[in-house]
Amino acid sequence: MSRSLRGVALAAALLLNAPTAFADRDVRESAQVHPKGEVEVSNIAGSVRVTGWDRDVVEVTGTLGSGVEDLEFRTEGRYTLIKVRMPRNGRSGGSDLEISMPASGRLTVGTVSSDTTVQGVQGALRLQTVSGNIETDVFGEDAQLKTVSGDVIVQGTDEAGLLTITTVSGDVGLRDVRGEIVVQTVSGDVEAESTELERARIRTTNGDADLRTGLASGARFEMEAVNGDLTLTIKGEPDAEFNIETFNGDIRNDFGPEPVRTSRYAPGRELRFSERDGSARVGIKTLNGAIILRTD
Amino acid sequence: MNDEDSLMQRARRLPGEIPPRRDLWSDIEARLRTPEPAASAGAGWRWFALAAAASVIMAVAALTVLHTDRQPTLPAPAPVAVSTDFPAPFGPAYSLGPQYQVARAGLAQDLNSRLATLPPETRASVLRNLEAIRAAVAEINAALADDPGNVLLQQLLLTTYQDELAVLADVQDATEKLPKRNEI
After folding, report:
1. How many Cβ contacts (< 8 angstroms) between chains A and B?
2. For residue range B135-152, what is the model confidence (pLDDT) as tens digits?
3. Measured between CB atoms, which of A18, A166, A226 is closest to B136?
């Protein structure tokens, strides 16, 4: 074959192979790991779904997006890294990863726009994304969830732990969590439901927060907003000391005394009272937002 | 000296001109005049082949551009301009001290370039929320100007400043620790 013919053949081969060069690729990796080891996942775009299982094995299946270099999968001692490697200065599609890991292991996930879903991982969680959503269940271990604009949904298992959630504009939804929750958002709305909490700190600037829970004996609750509305619905008979204050908003309560004006000349209102032994302490403060206190 | 004389004598003995053993020009002239039909056809095919290869490569390039344009990717950095230099008043007569200013300056450093690496919607969201925090700070400070001793306002102002630090820290965290193309 002459050199010219070989050139044409090469170019034609390039053309024919172009779809596969840029097409999605399936991946499958697995390794034996320590049952309480840490798994770290890094994926810029696409999705990450992690499931805890009863095997001492980490397994990854899924699809790497077009243009992705490869999947780095390595285990060192108790640490396993699963990382979608992107080309330098290149374009690439999102990758979808399905990961199974020991249920008692710890998990760290970092993404930019990937949605993250975690189910059945009972070790500590550290899930972080920029614009993706996070959906996870939590057990007795600490969980730290952070997004900028993504939403966070947490399903608890009525086991006490420390749950810390930070968003800038993402909404937060919690259900059946126990122990301590710390939620901070600027404009996201917060909706939390629990059988009972020992500690709760919810802070928003412009978002609304709605907490519906029982108060553990000696519980400490703090809710604070600048312009958001705050609602606390207490399950059962309240046994707490309440310290509620707003500079320019309304206070609406279906138990306890009537709120009073803080000054003849200022619009502020406050409500301070104690129910039963006053075992728990509840503080709620806003600048302009309304405060609603009720029992369920 | 003797060596040099000997060398010169040997050089003088060399012939002044060496005639070719046969007449080369007649062969060269004959080859120049003789047409080569096979060679001409090869040249034409070569041009055609090169053109075809070029068009195929262009097609591949076009397909590549079309294909990659459809893929979700991180946005190219966009110019962002948000002021990171403003005072932090705490009521009518005070401002937050140098430690706070240092902390905020540190977090706000390179804020614009960091924001530029975020997805556009997220970037817009962060800017909106920073603006909301600063509006809240201004509103609380205005209220404090009328009621400087109000403890609730002081508490809210402090936590609102903390919110701002938290957002700045989140932006720094998101752009530093999360995977980026440049560091992979």
Report:
1. 179
2. 999 999 999 998 888 999
3. A226
Out of A111, A141, A156, pick the residue that ends a domain.
A111
Chain A nearest-CA residue for B131:
A186
Per-residue burial over A166-201, b if 16 or more Cβ lie within 10 Å, else e, is bbbbbbbbbeebbbbbbbbbbbbbbbbbbebbbbbb
Q: Which residue has the tokens 């050089």?
A: B11
Distances (CA, A) of A212 to A176, A235, A249, A286, B45: 10, 7, 21, 18, 81
pTM over 0.90: no
Q: Among partner residues A2, A7, A43, which is closest to B53 by beta-carbon distance?
A: A7
* Same domain assignment for residues A167 and A100: no
Other beta carbons within 10 Å of A39: 25
Closest by Cβ to B118, choosing from A15, A130, A224: A130
Claim to verify: residue A105 and residue A144 sit in the same structural domain: no
Respond yes or no on whether ipTM tops 0.85. no
CB A84 within 8 A of CB A57: no
Alpha carbon distance A52, B139 (integer Å): 48
More reliable by pLDDT, B146 or A154:
A154
- A58 - beta bridge partners? A31
Nearest residue, CB atoms, B126 vs list A43, A112, A168 = A168
The secondary structure of residue A78, as a DSSP letter, is: T
Residue of chain A whose Cα is closest to the Cα of B182: A88
Are residues A152 and A295 located together in one domain of the fold?
Answer: yes
Q: Are residues A105 and A75 in the same domain?
A: yes
Is A146 in Cβ contact with B150 (below 8 Å)? no
Query: Contact B56/A11, CB-based, under 8 Å?
Result: yes
Here the tokens at position B60 are 């591949």
| Average pLDDT estimate for A54-64 | 97
Q: Are residues B56 and B118 in the same domain?
A: no
* CA–CA distances in Å: residue A78 to residues A20, A65, A105, A111, A241: 36, 28, 9, 22, 47
Task: Check pLDDT > 90 for residue B178.
Answer: no
Contacts of A149 in chain B (CB under 8 A): 121-122, 125-126
Write down the pLDDT at residue A87.
81
Summarize pLDDT for B45-80 with one digit per residue, the tens.
Answer: 455 445 545 554 454 444 444 344 334 445 555 555
Burial profile A58-77: b = 16 or more Cβ within 10 angstroms, e = fewer? bbbebbbbbbbeebebebee
